[in-house]
Structures are given as structure tokens and as C-alpha cells.
């Protein structure tokens, strides 16, 4: 595929289609404005976070599989953005190493630095007991939730280590499933435990370079993915509980989660948030029901 990059609005929304590496860098940017990459930016918490970053004056690179969804977010963000704020749309499969490297190269060409990676892309996967889960479904869930998170974190880390001044913040979107499983969610639960290990390892690796890494574990933020899992007050059947029953569960607005993500991103560089658990009030947690 060729790379097609063009401005589409006064706030500098840019689309980059991957990846053969041919691209024309945009105009120089004010490096006092911070730069963020958000994966899974086309919907849910990623979309809400991209919009909140925009409101607060960050340049934002929007990564995700669905270009049409990313474009829609960029259009909405353009209406919220202060003058001079830039949005870079980069359709990206986070499980593809080449696509990930290309996306971060575009960010470096556009802005010459990176201050935040919100590693948000993820998939719930099928609801199945361990004896029912296929290896194909297990591997697909692992590819997005673990390998994709690793590839993006590694690309961000290399960027943050090489830039001058060094440093930045990586924030991984975990889940309360990194702490307590849901019934019949063995693949998702296992991947989120793995993300916790990845987060803690990156936090140690980043210390010499001023790179912090933390994790936000959310429970029942209202998103399309959560609806697909059968959770929430609006669900016809409710969420599967540990006792085998199904009950609707409370949710909270994804924009509340987004505000927390950006609050963490805007902390001073010498402050690290290692792990933060945020759930809807009244959500089953210990024992999950």
C-alpha cells in the first residue's frame, strides 16, 4: 500500500495509510505541546481518552484497525481541539510488528517525540470454559491483548529512550480480570494477568531512562466491548456470575475512565502510578458474585 498523508482541517488532522514508509513529515510542531499515542482509539475507552487528551491540548496519534472509526474520532476531536493541536490517524493492526513500527515512525516524523502511550487495544474473546476454549481462540486473544501490548510498549520505549530529553509514560489498560476472573473467561483473564507482569517489568526497565509504566484496571466501564460480554444494567440477560446465575451489573461512563487516564498522564514526570483499580460502584469484585 502507498502512504497517503494529507491535512483535512484547521487543527491539522492527518491520515496516514500504512505501510511502505513513504511519507512527507508535517510542519514542525511546538514541542511544548505533549504528544500521545492511543491504541484502540476508534471506540470505547480509547475514543474517550483521545477526546479528553484533545480537550487538554495534547497532540494525539489515533491507532486502530478501523480507519473509518478513527476518522470519525478525529473529526469529533477537531471540533474540541485548541488551535494548533494535531491528530494523526494511523490504521494499525497492533499484532503486526511492521505496522506498529511504521505507526511509531510516523509519530516521530510528525512530532519528534512521544510523551504518552495509552496501550488500550484489546479483545474480550469468546466466553468458554477451559475445556471448551479452542487453541485458535486462545491464540487470537493472546495476540491482541499481550503481543499487541508488548509491541506497542516496545516501540514507545525505544522512542522515549532515544529522544532528547529522554523519558515518557506508558499506561497499559489492564482489567479487574487481572485480579479476579469472571466465569468462562479463561483466555481474557490469563492475558490480563500477563499484561500486569509486562507492566511491572517495563516499569523496572524504564527507570534509567525516565520512562514510567503503570496500569489502570477498569471494571464495567460502559463500552461496546462490555455490552458484547453481556454485562450491564441494559443487558437483557446480565453477566454470568460465579454461582451460575446471570444478573445485570452497574456500569460507569467511559469518559470518567478517560479523565483518570489523562490525569495520570499529566502528573509530574517524577510521579509514578503503578497500578490503579477503578470499578463501577456496587460491581461484584471478590468472588465475582
Automatic annotation (TrEMBL):
Belongs to the short-chain dehydrogenases/reductases (SDR) family. Gene3D superfamilies: NAD(P)-binding Rossmann-like Domain. GO terms for molecular function: oxidoreductase activity. This is SDR family oxidoreductase. Residues 1-32 are annotated as: Disordered. Residues 1-10 have a biased composition (Basic and acidic residues). Pfam families: adh_short. Keywords: Oxidoreductase.
Amino acid at each position: 500500500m502507498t502512504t497517503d498523508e494529507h491535512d483535512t482541517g484547521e487543527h491539522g488532522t492527518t491520515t496516514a495509510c500504512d505501510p511502505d514508509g513513504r511519507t512527507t513529515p508535517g510542519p514542525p510542531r511546538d514541542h511544548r505541546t505533549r504528544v500521545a499515542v492511543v491504541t484502540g482509539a476508534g471506540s470505547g475507552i480509547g475514543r474517550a481518552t483521545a477526546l479528553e487528551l484533545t480537550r487538554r491540548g495534547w497532540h494525539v496519534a489515533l491507532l486502530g484497525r478501523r480507519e473509518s472509526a478513527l476518522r470519525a474520532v478525529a473529526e469529533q476531536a477537531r471540533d474540541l481541539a485548541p488551535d494548533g493541536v494535531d491528530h494523526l490517524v494511523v490504521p494499525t493492526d497492533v499484532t503486526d510488528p511492521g505496522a506498529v513500527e511504521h505507526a511509531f515512525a510516523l509519530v516521530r516524523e510528525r512530532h519528534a517525540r512521544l510523551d504518552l502511550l495509552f496501550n488500550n487495544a484489546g479483545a474480550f474473546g469468546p466466553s468458554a470454559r477451559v475445556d471448551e476454549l479452542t487453541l485458535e481462540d486462545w491464540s487470537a486473544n493472546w495476540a491482541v491483548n499481550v503481543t499487541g501490548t508488548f509491541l506497542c510498549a516496545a516501540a514507545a520505549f525505544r522512542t522515549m529512550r532515544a529522544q532528547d530529553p529522554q523519558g515518557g509514560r506508558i499506561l497499559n489498560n489492564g482489567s479487574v480480570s487481572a485480579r479476579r476472573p469472571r466465569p468462562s473467561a479463561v483466555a481474557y483473564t490469563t492475558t490480563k494477568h500477563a499484561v500486569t507482569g509486562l507492566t511491572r517489568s517495563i516499569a523496572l526497565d524504564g527507570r534509567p531512562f525516565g520512562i514510567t509504566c503503570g496500569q489502570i484496571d477498569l471494571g464495567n466501564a460502559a463500552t461496546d466491548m462490555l455490552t458484547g460480554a453481556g454485562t450491564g444494567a441494559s443487558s437483557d440477560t446480565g453477566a454470568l456470575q460465579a454461582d451460575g446465575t446471570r444478573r445485570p451489573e452497574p456500569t460507569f461512563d467511559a469518559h470518567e475512565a478517560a479523565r483518570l487516564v489523562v490525569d495520570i498522564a499529566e502528573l509530574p514526570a517524577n510521579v509514578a502510578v503503578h497500578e490503579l483499580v477503578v470499578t463501577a460502584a456496587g460491581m461484584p469484585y471478590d468472588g465475582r458474585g
